[in-house]
């Protein structure tokens, strides 16, 4: 019914964090701080926001399609009946949190894999320099 709201809230928070991180990285670049070759955190956060917003949009469309989200107040049909509201909150707490956690876990695995791939050429170069 409203499980996409949990991912939407996470997407809003991560988008704000991404903007702050982009400003930090821009200041570091202006100061001429050199860092090792790696994927910037702002880019990784962009991956997460894209995954979250994509899921939110698809789920919101699906809920509109099934008539669970409407264009008039209270917007969520489950909010018009107290019994349905309790069911909606339970769904948000179980399904919504599980989906948001799964998306975040997949993102963490993606970041670990991407970091390993980026570091691979540096390790090969270091080994070649030793020989």
Any overview of this molecule?
This protein has 131 residues and is an all-alpha fold. Helix content is 78%, strand content 0%. The chain has 3 helices and no strands. It has helices at 4-31, 41-65, 82-130. The model has no long low-confidence stretch (mean pLDDT 90).
Brief digest:
It contains three helices and no strands.
Looking at this protein, list some descriptive labels.
single chain; 131 residues; mainly alpha; 78% helix
Secondary-structure blueprint of this entry?
Layout: H1 4-31, H2 41-65, H3 82-130
Helix pairs in contact: 1-2, 1-3, 2-3
* Helix run count: 3
Number of strands: 0
Task: From the alpha carbons, calculate the radius of gyration and give it in angstroms.
Answer: 21 Å
Kindly report how far apart the N and C termini lie. Answer: 61 Å
Mass-distribution shape: elongated
Largest sheet: none
* Mean pLDDT rating: 90
The percentage of residues in β strands lies in under 5%
String of helices and strands: HHH
Low-confidence stretches: none
Structural class by helix and strand composition:
mainly alpha
Q: Fraction of residues in helices?
A: over 70%
């Amino acid at each position: 019914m409203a499980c996409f709201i949990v991912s939407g809230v996470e997407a809003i928070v991560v988008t704000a964090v991404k903007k702050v991180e982009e400003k930090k990285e821009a200041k570091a670049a202006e100061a001429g701080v050199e860092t090792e070759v790696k994927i910037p955190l702002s880019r990784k956060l962009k991956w997460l926001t894209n995954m979250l917003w994509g899921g939110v949009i698809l789920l919101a469309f699906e809920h509109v399609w099934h008539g669970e989200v409407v264009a008039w107040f209270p917007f969520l049909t489950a909010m018009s009946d107290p019994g349905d509201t309790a069911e909606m909150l339970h769904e948000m707490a179980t399904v919504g949190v599980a989906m948001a956690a799964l998306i975040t876990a997949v993102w963490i695995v993606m970041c670990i894999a991407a970091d390993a791939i980026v570091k691979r050429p540096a390790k090969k170069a270091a080994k070649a320099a030793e020989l």
